[in-house]
């Protein structure tokens, strides 16, 4: 197949590499023209994924029209805050029946839309029948080293899901199928906020006990918001929920955990972002998550404290202490108990 990958950051490049392993022809869009020249000339993305030899079947360009020419599928891997702008550039050159596989993890800040909703609105698609979401615990660097990796693929069109599974699966890359577009997208986005909290704990010098609190209560917050928005609670115990949360909170390669660690060590958000080559999606998602929690009347204490630290000048240590002052009470929220009761009846 000929597949367009929109976004030549580390993850877009890694997915291009993966697809080339399955002998697909990949057309890769890079925002920076110099990145496209680098890939085509030296078969390596020295800016975002250095040291990885790329197949000659991967052809890069900074011209979207050229990248989208004659493709059968599109893999969308741009940061969420520029997604709508890039989609606007794609629209004139994209047939309405071409499947789009979303590998972007984020929530649009102003509209609070998930990426599938942004794509359908911006491209004028009335339903999500040709939309799929790929999300789960997957560092780009480890994928291109052929480390065993498994992710979730959410798609309401089961036949399309099976085709995508076949196109991506290798001996080291597995896909679990799900119809839950909302849950898989929320899991992939919200875990980045909790990872900032986990990194902040590391930066403050706290140990595994503290990180365990943040991860377990963070998962609970993710699931509660998901339930309120119509997701399946079981999604949050899978690859795109607990799996991605575990990876991003604990992995040394996690940009969001690293940002949180530097915040905990006393650096300012502005100082950290200036030094980062790639986007830490959790910063923008923190604002979106807090707004969604207020919209759906879901208490998300960790999200609220991270927002206070990032945008309101609160000290990370005080945020942890305030979280601890609210800890305790019923472990299983009432809304979760009600869902379990309904599922058993």
Describe the overall structure.
The protein is of the alpha/beta class. It folds into two domains: about 1-180, 3-Layer(aba) Sandwich (Rossmann fold); about 185-345, N-(1-d-carboxylethyl)-l-norvaline Dehydrogenase, domain 2. It has 16 helices and eight strands. It has an eight-stranded mixed sheet, sandwiched between helices. Strand 7, helix 7 (about 160-170) and strand 8 (about 175-180) form a beta-alpha-beta unit. Helix 8 runs parallel beside helix 10 (about 240-250). The protein is globular.
What's the layout of helices and strands?
Elements: E1 2-6, H1 10-21, E2 25-29, H2 33-42, E3 58-61, H3 64-68, E4 73-76, H4 83-90, E5 100-102, H5 115-123, E6 131-135, H6 140-143, E7 149-155, H7 158-168, E8 173-178, H8 181-203, H9 208-228, H10 239-250, H11 255-264, H12 269-275, H13 282-295, H14 301-311, H15 316-326, H16 334-344
Parallel strand pairs: 1-2, 1-4, 2-3, 4-5, 5-6, 7-8
Antiparallel strand pairs: 6-7
Helix pairs in contact: 4-5, 8-9, 8-10, 8-11, 8-13, 9-10, 13-14, 14-15
List keywords for this structure.
52% helix, eight-stranded mixed beta sheet, 345 residues, alpha/beta, single chain, 16 helices, N-(1-d-carboxylethyl)-l-norvaline Dehydrogenase, domain 2, globular, Rossmann fold
């Amino acid at each position: 197949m000929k597949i367009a990958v929109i976004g030549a950051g580390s993850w877009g490049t890694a997915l291009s590499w993966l697809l080339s392993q399955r002998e697909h022809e990949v057309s890769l869009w890079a925002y920076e023209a110099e990145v496209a020249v680098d890939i085509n000339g030296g078969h390596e993305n020295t800016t975002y994924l250095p040291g990885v030899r790329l197949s000659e079947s991967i052809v890069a360009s900074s011209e979207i029209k050229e990248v989208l020419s004659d493709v059968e599928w599109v893999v969308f891997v741009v940061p969420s805050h520029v997604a709508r702008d890039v989609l606007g550039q794609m629209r004139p050159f994209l047939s309405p029946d071409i499947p789009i596989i979303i590998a972007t993890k984020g929530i649009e800040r102003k509209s609070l839309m998930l990426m599938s909703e942004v794509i359908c609105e911006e491209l004028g698609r009335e339903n999500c029948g040709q939309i799929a979401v790929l999300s789960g615990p997957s560092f780009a660097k480890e994928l291109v080293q052929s480390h065993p990796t498994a992710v979730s693929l959410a798609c309401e069109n089961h036949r399309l899901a099976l085709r995508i599974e076949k196109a991506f699966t290798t001996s080291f890359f597995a896909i679990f199928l799900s119809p839950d577009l909302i849950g898989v997208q929320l899991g992939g986005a919200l875990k980045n906020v909790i990872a900032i909290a986990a990194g902040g704990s590391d930066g403050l010098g706290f140990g595994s006990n503290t990180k365990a609190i943040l991860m377990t209560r963070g998962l609970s917050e993710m699931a509660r918001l998901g339930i309120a928005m119509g997701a399946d609670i079981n999604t949050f115990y899978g690859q795109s929920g607990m799996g991605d949360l575990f990876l991003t909170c604990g992995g040394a390669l996690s940009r969001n955990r690293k940002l949180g660690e530097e915040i905990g060590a006393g650096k300012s958000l502005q100082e950290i972002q200036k030094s980062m080559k790639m986007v830490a999606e959790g910063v923008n998602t923190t604002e979106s998550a807090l707004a969604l929690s207020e919209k759906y009347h879901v208490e998300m204490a960790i999200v609220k404290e991270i927002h206070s630290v990032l945008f309101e000048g609160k000290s990370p240590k005080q945020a942890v202490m305030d979280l601890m002052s609210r800890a305790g009470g019923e472990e299983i929220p009432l809304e979760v108990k009600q869902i379990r009761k309904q599922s058993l009846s």
